[in-house]
Write a structure and sequence with these properties.
133 residues; 3 helices; mainly alpha; single chain; rod-shaped
């Protein structure tokens, strides 16, 4: 009996458990177990869904916006290209004309004729080359 008395006299370091607490902890563990099992069961559905969402938000949406921006710039660049093609064709035409000896002779003759006409307009009627004949 003395051994039993000694055990009873020792201070209990642990607080005595409440009767309802142990049952509640078991319920919480069951809920967590079912939740974990549910998450694992549906993992083949939600993992690809998260991946698809990440691709749509992080990759596809900016790529589509960049595509729209480039399509708008394409029209502007197309107009520039047409203008440059016209200017290039005109410059090529002028180069071919200046390489032609007959064209250069006609231009020189036209310049001389214009100078004569301007000279006749600038001179008084009595000093013009035709009036002195």
């Amino acid at each position: 009996m003395s051994a039993q008395l000694q055990l009873d006299l020792k201070p209990n370091r642990r607080k005595p458990a409440r009767p309802g607490r142990k049952g509640r902890r078991r319920v919480d563990r069951d809920v967590l177990d079912r939740l974990g099992a549910g998450l694992l069961y549906w993992a083949p559905v939600w993992l690809p869904a998260i991946l698809l969402l990440q691709v749509l938000v992080g990759g596809l949406r900016p790529a589509l916006a960049e595509g729209r921006r480039l399509e708008a710039a394409e029209a502007e660049i197309g107009a520039w290209e047409e203008e440059l093609a016209r200017d290039s064709a005109l410059a090529e035409q002028h180069r071919r004309m200046l390489d032609d000896d007959v064209y250069r002779a006609r231009v020189e003759r036209t310049r001389r004729d214009v100078q004569v006409l301007l000279l006749e307009d600038a001179l008084p009627a009595d000093r013009s080359p035709q009036g002195s004949r």
